[in-house]
Amino acid sequence: MLWYLGKRLLQLIPVFFGATFLIYFMVFSLPGDPVAALFGDRQPSPQVIEAIRQQYNLDKPFFVQYLLWIGGLFRGDLGTTFSGLPVSQQLAAAFPITARLAILSLVFEAVAGIVVGVIAGLRKGKLFDATALVVSLLLISVPTFVVGFLLQYVLGINLGLFRVTVSGQAPWSELVLPAIVLASVSFAYIVRLTRASVAENMSADFVRTATAKGLSRRRVVGVHIFRNSLIPVVTYLGVDIGNLMVGAIVTEGIFNIHGVGGTVFQAVKLGEGPTVVSFVAVMVIIFMLANLLVDLLYAVLDPRIRYAK
Amino acid sequence: MPSNTEPRSATHYVAPIEETPLLAVDQVNEDEKTRSLWTDAWESMRRRPTFWISSILILLIIVVAIAPGLFTHVDPRAANLNDSNEGPRAGHLLGFTRQGYDVYARVIWGAQNSLIVGLLATVLVTIVGIVIGAFAGFYGGWLDTIVSRIGDVFFSIPTVLGAIVFMSVLPARNAVTVSLVLAVFAWPQIARIMRGAVLSAKQADYVTASSALGVSRFTTLVRHVIPNSLAPVIVVATVSLGTFIVAEATLSFLGIGLPASALSWGLDINAAQSSIRTSPSTIFWPSAALSITVLAFLLLGDVVRDALDPKARARR
Questions:
Q1: B165 → closest Cβ in A23, A200, A288
Q2: B156 and A144: CB-CB below 8 Å?
Q3: Which alpha helices (H) appear in chain B, and where do they start and end?
Q4: Of B168, B253, B295, the CB nearest to A145
Q5: How far is CA B240 from the centre of its chain?
Q6: How far is A16 from chain B (nearest CA, A)?
Q7: pTM above threshold 0.80
Q8: Quick one: signal sequence residues (chain A) (predicted)?
Protein backbone atom coordinates (compact mmCIF):
# COMPACT_ATOMS: atom_id res chain seq x y z
CA MET A 1 0.00 0.00 0.00
CA LEU A 2 2.73 2.41 1.03
CA TRP A 3 4.78 1.34 -1.97
CA TYR A 4 1.84 1.99 -4.23
CA LEU A 5 1.24 5.39 -2.66
CA GLY A 6 4.88 6.35 -3.13
CA LYS A 7 4.85 5.23 -6.74
CA ARG A 8 1.74 7.24 -7.49
CA LEU A 9 3.15 10.36 -5.83
CA LEU A 10 6.38 10.07 -7.81
CA GLN A 11 4.42 9.65 -11.04
CA LEU A 12 2.43 12.76 -10.23
CA ILE A 13 5.48 15.03 -10.13
CA PRO A 14 6.42 15.02 -13.85
CA VAL A 15 2.77 15.19 -14.83
CA PHE A 16 2.23 18.18 -12.55
CA PHE A 17 5.16 20.13 -13.98
CA GLY A 18 4.33 19.03 -17.51
CA ALA A 19 0.72 20.12 -17.29
CA THR A 20 1.40 23.46 -15.64
CA PHE A 21 4.20 24.14 -18.10
CA LEU A 22 1.89 23.27 -20.97
CA ILE A 23 -0.77 25.70 -19.80
CA TYR A 24 1.80 28.41 -19.17
CA PHE A 25 3.53 27.81 -22.49
CA MET A 26 0.27 27.77 -24.43
CA VAL A 27 -0.84 31.11 -23.14
CA PHE A 28 2.42 33.00 -23.09
CA SER A 29 3.87 31.83 -26.38
CA LEU A 30 0.82 32.82 -28.33
CA PRO A 31 0.77 35.97 -30.45
CA GLY A 32 -0.42 39.22 -28.91
CA ASP A 33 1.24 41.45 -26.33
CA PRO A 34 -0.56 41.29 -22.96
CA VAL A 35 0.63 44.78 -22.04
CA ALA A 36 -0.71 46.23 -25.26
CA ALA A 37 -3.96 44.35 -24.68
CA LEU A 38 -4.16 45.96 -21.24
CA PHE A 39 -4.25 49.42 -22.77
CA GLY A 40 -6.57 48.64 -25.64
CA ASP A 41 -6.51 51.38 -28.24
CA ARG A 42 -4.50 53.85 -26.16
CA GLN A 43 -0.74 54.03 -26.59
CA PRO A 44 1.12 53.94 -23.25
CA SER A 45 4.55 55.56 -22.87
CA PRO A 46 7.59 53.23 -23.15
CA GLN A 47 8.38 53.81 -19.46
CA VAL A 48 4.95 52.61 -18.41
CA ILE A 49 5.28 49.55 -20.63
CA GLU A 50 8.69 48.82 -19.13
CA ALA A 51 7.40 49.18 -15.56
CA ILE A 52 4.49 46.86 -16.21
CA ARG A 53 6.70 44.34 -17.95
CA GLN A 54 8.94 44.30 -14.89
CA GLN A 55 6.03 44.06 -12.48
CA TYR A 56 4.66 40.97 -14.21
CA ASN A 57 8.12 39.47 -14.91
CA LEU A 58 7.48 39.78 -18.64
CA ASP A 59 11.04 41.09 -19.19
CA LYS A 60 12.58 37.82 -18.00
CA PRO A 61 13.13 34.76 -20.19
CA PHE A 62 10.13 32.49 -20.61
CA PHE A 63 11.47 29.65 -18.51
CA VAL A 64 12.29 31.97 -15.60
CA GLN A 65 8.78 33.38 -15.82
CA TYR A 66 7.40 29.87 -15.54
CA LEU A 67 9.57 29.02 -12.53
CA LEU A 68 8.55 32.27 -10.79
CA TRP A 69 4.92 31.48 -11.44
CA ILE A 70 5.26 27.91 -10.11
CA GLY A 71 7.15 29.21 -7.07
CA GLY A 72 4.34 31.64 -6.40
CA LEU A 73 1.84 28.83 -6.79
CA PHE A 74 3.48 26.88 -3.97
CA ARG A 75 3.47 29.94 -1.71
CA GLY A 76 -0.23 30.42 -2.41
CA ASP A 77 0.46 33.43 -4.61
CA LEU A 78 -1.44 32.96 -7.83
CA GLY A 79 -0.56 36.36 -9.21
CA THR A 80 -2.85 39.30 -9.72
CA THR A 81 -5.36 39.77 -12.46
CA PHE A 82 -4.77 42.78 -14.70
CA SER A 83 -7.58 44.53 -12.89
CA GLY A 84 -5.36 44.45 -9.79
CA LEU A 85 -7.20 41.93 -7.62
CA PRO A 86 -5.10 39.00 -6.33
CA VAL A 87 -6.26 35.76 -7.93
CA SER A 88 -5.92 33.92 -4.60
CA GLN A 89 -8.32 36.37 -2.95
CA GLN A 90 -10.86 35.87 -5.73
CA LEU A 91 -10.39 32.13 -5.45
CA ALA A 92 -10.81 32.10 -1.68
CA ALA A 93 -14.18 33.81 -2.03
CA ALA A 94 -15.35 31.55 -4.85
CA PHE A 95 -14.04 28.20 -3.69
CA PRO A 96 -16.42 27.39 -0.79
CA ILE A 97 -19.44 27.94 -3.05
CA THR A 98 -18.13 25.58 -5.72
CA ALA A 99 -17.11 23.06 -3.06
CA ARG A 100 -20.70 23.01 -1.77
CA LEU A 101 -22.04 22.58 -5.30
CA ALA A 102 -19.55 19.81 -6.09
CA ILE A 103 -20.25 17.93 -2.85
CA LEU A 104 -24.00 18.08 -3.45
CA SER A 105 -23.74 16.83 -7.00
CA LEU A 106 -21.15 14.15 -6.20
CA VAL A 107 -23.39 12.80 -3.43
CA PHE A 108 -26.40 12.93 -5.73
CA GLU A 109 -24.76 11.22 -8.67
CA ALA A 110 -22.94 8.60 -6.61
CA VAL A 111 -25.87 7.62 -4.38
CA ALA A 112 -28.62 7.78 -7.01
CA GLY A 113 -26.39 6.44 -9.78
CA ILE A 114 -25.18 3.43 -7.82
CA VAL A 115 -28.61 2.59 -6.42
CA VAL A 116 -30.29 2.75 -9.84
CA GLY A 117 -27.37 0.95 -11.46
CA VAL A 118 -27.37 -1.93 -8.96
CA ILE A 119 -31.14 -2.43 -9.24
CA ALA A 120 -30.92 -2.34 -13.04
CA GLY A 121 -27.99 -4.77 -13.04
CA LEU A 122 -29.76 -7.22 -10.72
CA ARG A 123 -32.88 -7.09 -12.89
CA LYS A 124 -31.13 -7.22 -16.24
CA GLY A 125 -33.60 -7.31 -19.12
CA LYS A 126 -36.58 -6.31 -16.99
CA LEU A 127 -38.62 -3.14 -17.37
CA PHE A 128 -36.68 -1.18 -14.75
CA ASP A 129 -33.43 -2.02 -16.48
CA ALA A 130 -34.69 -1.04 -19.92
CA THR A 131 -36.06 2.25 -18.60
CA ALA A 132 -32.81 3.04 -16.80
CA LEU A 133 -30.85 2.35 -19.98
CA VAL A 134 -33.01 4.60 -22.17
CA VAL A 135 -33.16 7.44 -19.63
CA SER A 136 -29.40 7.34 -19.03
CA LEU A 137 -28.69 7.40 -22.77
CA LEU A 138 -30.95 10.44 -23.15
CA LEU A 139 -29.26 12.18 -20.23
CA ILE A 140 -25.82 11.54 -21.70
CA SER A 141 -26.74 12.96 -25.08
CA VAL A 142 -28.29 16.16 -23.73
CA PRO A 143 -25.44 18.60 -22.93
CA THR A 144 -25.26 20.06 -19.43
CA PHE A 145 -26.24 23.56 -20.47
CA VAL A 146 -29.35 22.26 -22.21
CA VAL A 147 -30.36 20.30 -19.09
CA GLY A 148 -29.69 23.48 -17.15
CA PHE A 149 -32.02 25.61 -19.23
CA LEU A 150 -34.65 22.89 -19.37
CA LEU A 151 -34.83 22.42 -15.60
CA GLN A 152 -34.49 26.16 -15.03
CA TYR A 153 -37.48 26.73 -17.29
CA VAL A 154 -39.70 23.84 -16.18
CA LEU A 155 -38.95 23.68 -12.44
CA GLY A 156 -37.91 27.27 -11.88
CA ILE A 157 -40.02 29.42 -14.17
CA ASN A 158 -43.06 27.26 -14.95
CA LEU A 159 -43.62 25.43 -11.69
CA GLY A 160 -41.82 27.88 -9.42
CA LEU A 161 -40.37 25.08 -7.29
CA PHE A 162 -36.83 26.45 -7.25
CA ARG A 163 -35.20 29.83 -7.42
CA VAL A 164 -34.11 30.50 -10.99
CA THR A 165 -30.83 32.12 -9.99
CA VAL A 166 -28.76 31.69 -6.87
CA SER A 167 -28.12 34.56 -4.49
CA GLY A 168 -24.63 35.81 -3.63
CA GLN A 169 -24.10 33.66 -0.54
CA ALA A 170 -25.30 30.53 -2.35
CA PRO A 171 -26.73 28.57 0.64
CA TRP A 172 -27.06 24.78 0.34
CA SER A 173 -30.80 24.88 -0.32
CA GLU A 174 -30.47 27.10 -3.36
CA LEU A 175 -27.77 24.88 -4.82
CA VAL A 176 -29.99 21.79 -5.06
CA LEU A 177 -31.26 22.47 -8.57
CA PRO A 178 -27.83 23.45 -9.99
CA ALA A 179 -26.35 20.34 -8.33
CA ILE A 180 -28.93 18.12 -10.04
CA VAL A 181 -28.13 19.77 -13.37
CA LEU A 182 -24.40 19.36 -12.83
CA ALA A 183 -24.81 15.73 -11.81
CA SER A 184 -27.13 14.68 -14.63
CA VAL A 185 -24.60 13.48 -17.20
CA SER A 186 -22.34 11.79 -14.63
CA PHE A 187 -25.37 10.19 -12.98
CA ALA A 188 -26.22 8.57 -16.31
CA TYR A 189 -22.66 7.30 -16.80
CA ILE A 190 -22.57 5.88 -13.27
CA VAL A 191 -25.90 4.09 -13.81
CA ARG A 192 -24.58 2.47 -16.98
CA LEU A 193 -21.22 1.55 -15.47
CA THR A 194 -22.69 0.10 -12.28
CA ARG A 195 -25.32 -1.80 -14.21
CA ALA A 196 -22.76 -3.33 -16.58
CA SER A 197 -20.39 -4.35 -13.83
CA VAL A 198 -23.14 -5.74 -11.55
CA ALA A 199 -24.51 -7.73 -14.48
CA GLU A 200 -21.03 -9.04 -15.25
CA ASN A 201 -20.23 -9.92 -11.64
CA MET A 202 -23.52 -11.80 -11.25
CA SER A 203 -22.09 -14.55 -13.41
CA ALA A 204 -18.58 -14.38 -11.93
CA ASP A 205 -17.03 -17.45 -10.35
CA PHE A 206 -16.65 -15.87 -6.94
CA VAL A 207 -20.37 -15.13 -6.83
CA ARG A 208 -21.19 -18.73 -7.72
CA THR A 209 -18.82 -19.89 -4.98
CA ALA A 210 -20.41 -17.55 -2.47
CA THR A 211 -23.88 -18.82 -3.36
CA ALA A 212 -22.72 -22.43 -3.33
CA LYS A 213 -21.30 -22.17 0.16
CA GLY A 214 -24.71 -21.12 1.34
CA LEU A 215 -24.42 -17.40 1.88
CA SER A 216 -27.67 -15.49 1.94
CA ARG A 217 -28.54 -13.54 -1.19
CA ARG A 218 -28.32 -10.41 0.88
CA ARG A 219 -24.71 -11.10 1.69
CA VAL A 220 -23.83 -12.21 -1.83
CA VAL A 221 -25.26 -9.04 -3.31
CA GLY A 222 -24.24 -6.69 -0.52
CA VAL A 223 -20.65 -7.83 -0.07
CA HIS A 224 -19.49 -9.83 -3.04
CA ILE A 225 -21.29 -8.24 -5.98
CA PHE A 226 -21.63 -4.71 -4.66
CA ARG A 227 -18.08 -4.15 -3.56
CA ASN A 228 -16.54 -5.61 -6.69
CA SER A 229 -18.91 -3.63 -8.89
CA LEU A 230 -17.78 -0.40 -7.32
CA ILE A 231 -14.25 -0.65 -8.73
CA PRO A 232 -15.01 0.64 -12.26
CA VAL A 233 -17.31 3.28 -10.76
CA VAL A 234 -14.52 4.60 -8.55
CA THR A 235 -12.20 4.70 -11.55
CA TYR A 236 -14.82 6.69 -13.40
CA LEU A 237 -15.07 9.21 -10.56
CA GLY A 238 -11.50 10.27 -11.34
CA VAL A 239 -12.37 11.16 -14.92
CA ASP A 240 -15.67 12.55 -13.77
CA ILE A 241 -14.10 15.26 -11.62
CA GLY A 242 -12.80 16.76 -14.87
CA ASN A 243 -16.31 16.66 -16.35
CA LEU A 244 -17.70 18.24 -13.19
CA MET A 245 -15.27 21.13 -13.51
CA VAL A 246 -16.31 21.89 -17.07
CA GLY A 247 -19.92 21.34 -16.03
CA ALA A 248 -19.45 23.74 -13.11
CA ILE A 249 -18.34 26.50 -15.48
CA VAL A 250 -21.52 26.07 -17.53
CA THR A 251 -23.90 25.42 -14.62
CA GLU A 252 -22.61 28.27 -12.47
CA GLY A 253 -22.84 30.51 -15.50
CA ILE A 254 -26.48 29.60 -16.11
CA PHE A 255 -27.58 29.92 -12.50
CA ASN A 256 -25.41 32.97 -11.84
CA ILE A 257 -23.47 31.33 -9.02
CA HIS A 258 -20.35 33.25 -8.00
CA GLY A 259 -18.17 30.18 -7.57
CA VAL A 260 -14.98 29.13 -9.32
CA GLY A 261 -16.87 28.04 -12.45
CA GLY A 262 -18.96 31.19 -12.50
CA THR A 263 -15.84 33.33 -12.24
CA VAL A 264 -14.26 31.52 -15.19
CA PHE A 265 -17.54 31.90 -17.10
CA GLN A 266 -17.56 35.66 -16.51
CA ALA A 267 -13.84 36.01 -17.22
CA VAL A 268 -14.24 34.17 -20.52
CA LYS A 269 -17.13 36.45 -21.48
CA LEU A 270 -15.15 39.56 -20.62
CA GLY A 271 -11.99 38.27 -22.29
CA GLU A 272 -9.92 38.35 -19.07
CA GLY A 273 -7.29 35.86 -20.19
CA PRO A 274 -5.07 35.94 -17.06
CA THR A 275 -7.98 35.19 -14.72
CA VAL A 276 -9.08 32.30 -16.92
CA VAL A 277 -5.55 30.87 -16.97
CA SER A 278 -4.95 31.14 -13.23
CA PHE A 279 -8.32 29.66 -12.34
CA VAL A 280 -8.12 26.84 -14.84
CA ALA A 281 -4.56 26.07 -13.73
CA VAL A 282 -5.85 25.71 -10.17
CA MET A 283 -8.68 23.50 -11.46
CA VAL A 284 -6.20 21.26 -13.28
CA ILE A 285 -4.12 20.93 -10.12
CA ILE A 286 -7.22 20.02 -8.10
CA PHE A 287 -8.13 17.53 -10.82
CA MET A 288 -4.70 15.86 -10.52
CA LEU A 289 -4.88 15.69 -6.71
CA ALA A 290 -8.44 14.34 -6.86
CA ASN A 291 -7.28 11.66 -9.25
CA LEU A 292 -4.54 10.69 -6.83
CA LEU A 293 -7.19 10.39 -4.13
CA VAL A 294 -9.32 8.24 -6.43
CA ASP A 295 -6.34 5.98 -7.07
CA LEU A 296 -5.90 5.48 -3.33
CA LEU A 297 -9.60 4.70 -2.93
CA TYR A 298 -9.18 2.25 -5.75
CA ALA A 299 -6.41 0.52 -3.81
CA VAL A 300 -8.61 0.32 -0.74
CA LEU A 301 -11.35 -1.41 -2.76
CA ASP A 302 -9.17 -3.73 -4.79
CA PRO A 303 -6.84 -6.02 -2.80
CA ARG A 304 -4.98 -6.95 -6.00
CA ILE A 305 -3.64 -3.39 -6.11
CA ARG A 306 -3.21 -3.05 -2.36
CA TYR A 307 -0.86 -5.99 -2.13
CA ALA A 308 0.84 -5.57 -5.48
CA LYS A 309 4.54 -5.03 -5.40
CA MET B 1 -12.87 -44.32 -52.44
CA PRO B 2 -15.17 -45.65 -49.70
CA SER B 3 -17.97 -43.48 -48.57
CA ASN B 4 -17.36 -41.73 -45.28
CA THR B 5 -20.44 -43.12 -43.64
CA GLU B 6 -19.67 -46.84 -44.16
CA PRO B 7 -18.31 -48.65 -41.10
CA ARG B 8 -14.70 -49.59 -41.63
CA SER B 9 -13.31 -53.00 -40.89
CA ALA B 10 -10.69 -52.64 -38.24
CA THR B 11 -9.00 -54.76 -35.66
CA HIS B 12 -9.25 -52.09 -33.04
CA TYR B 13 -12.09 -49.73 -32.27
CA VAL B 14 -12.26 -46.69 -34.41
CA ALA B 15 -14.87 -44.14 -33.59
CA PRO B 16 -17.45 -43.68 -36.32
CA ILE B 17 -16.50 -40.73 -38.43
CA GLU B 18 -19.65 -38.86 -37.33
CA GLU B 19 -18.33 -38.77 -33.80
CA THR B 20 -14.95 -37.40 -34.69
CA PRO B 21 -14.16 -33.82 -35.44
CA LEU B 22 -12.64 -34.98 -38.72
CA LEU B 23 -15.98 -34.70 -40.46
CA ALA B 24 -16.19 -31.05 -39.58
CA VAL B 25 -12.69 -30.56 -40.87
CA ASP B 26 -13.58 -32.28 -44.14
CA GLN B 27 -16.68 -30.18 -44.47
CA VAL B 28 -14.79 -26.93 -44.36
CA ASN B 29 -15.17 -25.41 -47.75
CA GLU B 30 -11.90 -23.77 -48.54
CA ASP B 31 -13.40 -21.71 -51.32
CA GLU B 32 -15.76 -20.03 -48.92
CA LYS B 33 -14.62 -16.58 -47.90
CA THR B 34 -13.33 -16.53 -44.34
CA ARG B 35 -15.38 -14.52 -41.92
CA SER B 36 -13.29 -11.74 -40.49
CA LEU B 37 -14.02 -9.68 -37.40
CA TRP B 38 -15.45 -7.02 -39.69
CA THR B 39 -17.93 -9.26 -41.51
CA ASP B 40 -18.95 -10.72 -38.15
CA ALA B 41 -19.46 -7.23 -36.79
CA TRP B 42 -21.51 -6.24 -39.81
CA GLU B 43 -23.68 -9.35 -39.44
CA SER B 44 -24.40 -8.54 -35.82
CA MET B 45 -24.97 -4.84 -36.43
CA ARG B 46 -27.41 -5.16 -39.28
CA ARG B 47 -29.75 -7.20 -37.12
CA ARG B 48 -30.09 -4.42 -34.58
CA PRO B 49 -32.83 -1.84 -35.17
CA THR B 50 -30.77 0.68 -33.18
CA PHE B 51 -28.10 0.49 -35.87
CA TRP B 52 -30.55 1.41 -38.61
CA ILE B 53 -32.26 4.13 -36.60
CA SER B 54 -28.96 5.82 -35.70
CA SER B 55 -27.51 5.37 -39.20
CA ILE B 56 -30.55 6.89 -40.88
CA LEU B 57 -30.49 9.78 -38.41
CA ILE B 58 -26.79 10.38 -39.02
CA LEU B 59 -27.27 10.14 -42.79
CA LEU B 60 -30.06 12.70 -42.56
CA ILE B 61 -27.88 15.03 -40.46
CA ILE B 62 -25.05 14.67 -42.99
CA VAL B 63 -27.40 15.54 -45.87
CA VAL B 64 -28.68 18.55 -43.92
CA ALA B 65 -25.10 19.65 -43.27
CA ILE B 66 -23.99 19.24 -46.90
CA ALA B 67 -27.03 20.77 -48.54
CA PRO B 68 -28.95 22.95 -46.08
CA GLY B 69 -30.47 24.77 -49.06
CA LEU B 70 -32.60 21.71 -49.77
CA PHE B 71 -34.42 22.10 -46.47
CA THR B 72 -34.93 25.81 -46.20
CA HIS B 73 -34.96 28.77 -48.54
CA VAL B 74 -34.82 31.30 -45.74
CA ASP B 75 -31.49 33.05 -45.22
CA PRO B 76 -30.32 32.16 -41.69
CA ARG B 77 -28.50 35.49 -41.50
CA ALA B 78 -31.46 37.62 -42.54
CA ALA B 79 -32.67 39.40 -39.44
CA ASN B 80 -35.68 41.64 -39.12
CA LEU B 81 -36.14 43.14 -35.67
CA ASN B 82 -39.85 43.56 -36.39
CA ASP B 83 -40.07 39.78 -36.10
CA SER B 84 -38.21 39.66 -32.75
CA ASN B 85 -39.43 36.67 -30.71
CA GLU B 86 -42.44 36.30 -33.02
CA GLY B 87 -44.20 32.92 -33.06
CA PRO B 88 -44.44 30.57 -36.04
CA ARG B 89 -46.21 31.66 -39.22
CA ALA B 90 -46.41 30.45 -42.82
CA GLY B 91 -42.92 29.89 -44.22
CA HIS B 92 -41.37 30.26 -40.78
CA LEU B 93 -42.18 27.00 -39.05
CA LEU B 94 -40.53 27.55 -35.71
CA GLY B 95 -40.84 31.29 -35.27
CA PHE B 96 -38.12 33.88 -34.76
CA THR B 97 -35.28 34.59 -32.37
CA ARG B 98 -34.85 37.76 -30.36
CA GLN B 99 -32.75 39.20 -33.18
CA GLY B 100 -35.45 38.30 -35.68
CA TYR B 101 -33.65 35.36 -37.28
CA ASP B 102 -35.71 32.43 -38.54
CA VAL B 103 -35.27 29.64 -35.94
CA TYR B 104 -35.84 26.80 -38.40
CA ALA B 105 -33.30 28.12 -40.91
CA ARG B 106 -30.67 28.54 -38.19
CA VAL B 107 -31.28 25.06 -36.81
CA ILE B 108 -30.82 23.61 -40.33
CA TRP B 109 -27.70 25.64 -41.11
CA GLY B 110 -26.21 25.01 -37.67
CA ALA B 111 -25.69 21.31 -38.45
CA GLN B 112 -22.74 22.11 -40.70
CA ASN B 113 -20.33 23.44 -38.10
CA SER B 114 -21.24 20.83 -35.49
CA LEU B 115 -20.56 18.04 -37.95
CA ILE B 116 -17.35 19.58 -39.30
CA VAL B 117 -15.88 19.98 -35.83
CA GLY B 118 -17.06 16.51 -34.74
CA LEU B 119 -15.66 14.76 -37.81
CA LEU B 120 -12.44 16.76 -38.09
CA ALA B 121 -11.55 16.41 -34.40
CA THR B 122 -12.35 12.68 -34.48
CA VAL B 123 -10.26 12.08 -37.62
CA LEU B 124 -7.33 14.05 -36.17
CA VAL B 125 -7.47 12.31 -32.82
CA THR B 126 -7.84 8.89 -34.41
CA ILE B 127 -4.90 9.29 -36.81
CA VAL B 128 -2.58 10.81 -34.20
CA GLY B 129 -3.68 8.32 -31.56
CA ILE B 130 -3.26 5.30 -33.83
CA VAL B 131 0.19 6.32 -35.04
CA ILE B 132 1.54 7.29 -31.61
CA GLY B 133 -0.11 4.40 -29.77
CA ALA B 134 1.03 1.85 -32.35
CA PHE B 135 4.66 2.99 -32.37
CA ALA B 136 4.82 3.24 -28.58
CA GLY B 137 3.25 -0.16 -28.07
CA PHE B 138 5.13 -1.97 -30.84
CA TYR B 139 8.65 -0.66 -30.39
CA GLY B 140 8.48 -0.14 -26.61
CA GLY B 141 11.61 0.97 -24.82
CA TRP B 142 12.49 4.63 -24.39
CA LEU B 143 10.14 5.69 -27.20
CA ASP B 144 7.23 4.18 -25.28
CA THR B 145 8.33 5.77 -22.01
CA ILE B 146 8.66 9.25 -23.46
CA VAL B 147 5.46 9.11 -25.48
CA SER B 148 3.46 7.68 -22.58
CA ARG B 149 4.68 10.36 -20.18
CA ILE B 150 3.87 13.12 -22.67
CA GLY B 151 0.45 11.54 -23.10
CA ASP B 152 -0.02 11.55 -19.30
CA VAL B 153 0.58 15.30 -19.25
CA PHE B 154 -2.09 16.00 -21.87
CA PHE B 155 -4.39 13.44 -20.28
CA SER B 156 -4.17 15.22 -16.92
CA ILE B 157 -5.91 18.27 -18.41
CA PRO B 158 -9.63 17.74 -19.02
CA THR B 159 -10.25 18.32 -22.76
CA VAL B 160 -12.79 21.11 -22.57
CA LEU B 161 -10.94 22.81 -19.70
CA GLY B 162 -7.74 22.87 -21.75
CA ALA B 163 -9.68 24.04 -24.76
CA ILE B 164 -11.15 26.93 -22.74
CA VAL B 165 -7.66 28.16 -21.85
CA PHE B 166 -6.36 27.67 -25.36
CA MET B 167 -9.34 29.22 -27.14
CA SER B 168 -9.52 32.21 -24.79
CA VAL B 169 -6.09 33.34 -26.00
CA LEU B 170 -6.22 32.09 -29.60
CA PRO B 171 -6.62 34.92 -32.11
CA ALA B 172 -8.21 32.81 -34.88
CA ARG B 173 -11.50 31.14 -34.06
CA ASN B 174 -13.11 28.88 -36.63
CA ALA B 175 -14.20 25.28 -37.05
CA VAL B 176 -10.65 24.18 -37.90
CA THR B 177 -8.97 25.79 -34.88
CA VAL B 178 -11.69 24.49 -32.53
CA SER B 179 -11.14 20.96 -33.88
CA LEU B 180 -7.37 21.29 -33.58
CA VAL B 181 -7.54 22.52 -30.01
CA LEU B 182 -9.93 19.73 -29.00
CA ALA B 183 -7.66 17.18 -30.69
CA VAL B 184 -4.58 18.50 -28.86
CA PHE B 185 -6.11 17.51 -25.53
CA ALA B 186 -8.01 14.41 -26.59
CA TRP B 187 -5.41 12.31 -28.46
CA PRO B 188 -3.93 10.50 -25.41
CA GLN B 189 -7.16 8.58 -24.87
CA ILE B 190 -7.02 6.92 -28.30
CA ALA B 191 -3.23 6.53 -28.07
CA ARG B 192 -3.56 4.67 -24.76
CA ILE B 193 -6.21 2.33 -26.13
CA MET B 194 -4.21 1.72 -29.30
CA ARG B 195 -1.06 1.05 -27.29
CA GLY B 196 -2.87 -1.51 -25.17
CA ALA B 197 -4.34 -3.24 -28.22
CA VAL B 198 -0.96 -3.32 -29.99
CA LEU B 199 0.74 -4.71 -26.88
CA SER B 200 -1.60 -7.68 -26.87
CA ALA B 201 -1.60 -8.12 -30.67
CA LYS B 202 2.20 -8.13 -30.63
CA GLN B 203 2.16 -11.44 -28.74
CA ALA B 204 0.11 -13.19 -31.43
CA ASP B 205 1.51 -16.08 -33.47
CA TYR B 206 1.00 -14.33 -36.77
CA VAL B 207 3.45 -11.64 -35.68
CA THR B 208 6.07 -14.27 -34.92
CA ALA B 209 5.26 -15.98 -38.22
CA SER B 210 5.60 -12.72 -40.08
CA SER B 211 8.98 -12.05 -38.48
CA ALA B 212 10.09 -15.64 -39.17
CA LEU B 213 9.28 -15.15 -42.84
CA GLY B 214 11.70 -12.26 -42.89
CA VAL B 215 9.18 -9.44 -43.05
CA SER B 216 10.62 -6.24 -41.62
CA ARG B 217 9.41 -5.00 -38.23
CA PHE B 218 7.83 -1.91 -39.75
CA THR B 219 5.94 -3.87 -42.41
CA THR B 220 4.75 -6.32 -39.77
CA LEU B 221 3.43 -3.41 -37.73
CA VAL B 222 1.64 -1.77 -40.63
CA ARG B 223 0.32 -4.89 -42.37
CA HIS B 224 -0.56 -7.12 -39.44
CA VAL B 225 -0.47 -5.51 -36.02
CA ILE B 226 -2.26 -2.22 -36.71
CA PRO B 227 -5.22 -3.71 -38.65
CA ASN B 228 -5.71 -6.25 -35.85
CA SER B 229 -5.69 -3.58 -33.15
CA LEU B 230 -8.16 -1.16 -34.70
CA ALA B 231 -11.43 -2.49 -33.25
CA PRO B 232 -11.31 -0.84 -29.80
CA VAL B 233 -10.12 2.42 -31.35
CA ILE B 234 -13.07 2.54 -33.73
CA VAL B 235 -15.48 2.01 -30.84
CA VAL B 236 -14.05 4.92 -28.86
CA ALA B 237 -13.79 7.13 -31.96
CA THR B 238 -17.51 6.71 -32.75
CA VAL B 239 -18.53 7.74 -29.25
CA SER B 240 -16.02 10.60 -29.14
CA LEU B 241 -17.56 12.10 -32.27
CA GLY B 242 -20.63 12.84 -30.17
CA THR B 243 -18.57 14.24 -27.31
CA PHE B 244 -16.67 16.55 -29.68
CA ILE B 245 -19.97 17.93 -30.94
CA VAL B 246 -20.97 18.61 -27.32
CA ALA B 247 -17.57 20.19 -26.69
CA GLU B 248 -17.92 22.53 -29.68
CA ALA B 249 -21.41 23.54 -28.58
CA THR B 250 -20.18 24.11 -25.02
CA LEU B 251 -17.27 26.27 -26.19
CA SER B 252 -19.51 28.25 -28.54
CA PHE B 253 -22.06 28.60 -25.78
CA LEU B 254 -19.37 30.06 -23.52
CA GLY B 255 -18.45 32.46 -26.31
CA ILE B 256 -14.97 31.10 -27.06
CA GLY B 257 -15.77 28.49 -29.66
CA LEU B 258 -16.86 29.63 -33.08
CA PRO B 259 -17.02 33.39 -33.71
CA ALA B 260 -20.32 35.12 -32.97
CA SER B 261 -21.05 35.47 -36.67
CA ALA B 262 -20.92 31.70 -37.26
CA LEU B 263 -23.99 29.49 -37.47
CA SER B 264 -23.81 27.12 -34.52
CA TRP B 265 -26.34 25.56 -32.18
CA GLY B 266 -24.19 26.47 -29.18
CA LEU B 267 -24.16 30.13 -30.20
CA ASP B 268 -27.91 30.11 -30.82
CA ILE B 269 -28.59 28.56 -27.42
CA ASN B 270 -26.42 31.23 -25.84
CA ALA B 271 -28.25 33.99 -27.73
CA ALA B 272 -31.65 32.59 -26.78
CA GLN B 273 -30.67 32.44 -23.11
CA SER B 274 -31.88 35.98 -22.49
CA SER B 275 -35.37 35.31 -23.83
CA ILE B 276 -35.97 32.00 -22.03
CA ARG B 277 -38.93 33.49 -20.15
CA THR B 278 -40.65 35.11 -23.10
CA SER B 279 -40.05 32.64 -25.91
CA PRO B 280 -38.60 29.36 -24.66
CA SER B 281 -39.01 27.76 -28.11
CA THR B 282 -36.03 29.71 -29.46
CA ILE B 283 -33.83 27.87 -26.97
CA PHE B 284 -35.65 24.57 -27.38
CA TRP B 285 -35.10 23.88 -31.09
CA PRO B 286 -31.33 24.29 -31.33
CA SER B 287 -31.04 22.32 -28.07
CA ALA B 288 -33.17 19.53 -29.50
CA ALA B 289 -31.16 19.44 -32.74
CA LEU B 290 -27.91 19.27 -30.77
CA SER B 291 -29.17 16.55 -28.44
CA ILE B 292 -30.58 14.39 -31.25
CA THR B 293 -27.31 14.61 -33.18
CA VAL B 294 -25.29 13.57 -30.14
CA LEU B 295 -27.78 10.82 -29.35
CA ALA B 296 -27.47 9.43 -32.90
CA PHE B 297 -23.69 9.10 -32.59
CA LEU B 298 -23.90 7.63 -29.08
CA LEU B 299 -26.42 5.03 -30.26
CA LEU B 300 -24.19 4.11 -33.18
CA GLY B 301 -21.23 3.91 -30.80
CA ASP B 302 -23.18 1.52 -28.57
CA VAL B 303 -24.03 -0.76 -31.49
CA VAL B 304 -20.47 -0.68 -32.82
CA ARG B 305 -19.10 -1.55 -29.39
CA ASP B 306 -21.45 -4.49 -29.05
CA ALA B 307 -20.46 -5.70 -32.52
CA LEU B 308 -16.70 -5.29 -32.16
CA ASP B 309 -16.26 -6.27 -28.53
CA PRO B 310 -17.46 -9.84 -27.99
CA LYS B 311 -17.10 -9.40 -24.23
CA ALA B 312 -19.58 -6.53 -24.29
CA ARG B 313 -21.89 -8.60 -26.47
CA ALA B 314 -21.88 -11.41 -23.93
CA ARG B 315 -22.68 -8.94 -21.17
CA ARG B 316 -25.78 -7.62 -22.79
A1: A23
A2: no
A3: 22-27, 37-45, 49-66, 103-139, 141-155, 159-169, 175-202, 205-212, 217-220, 226-254, 265-272, 281-308, 310-315
A4: B253
A5: 5
A6: 7
A7: yes
A8: none
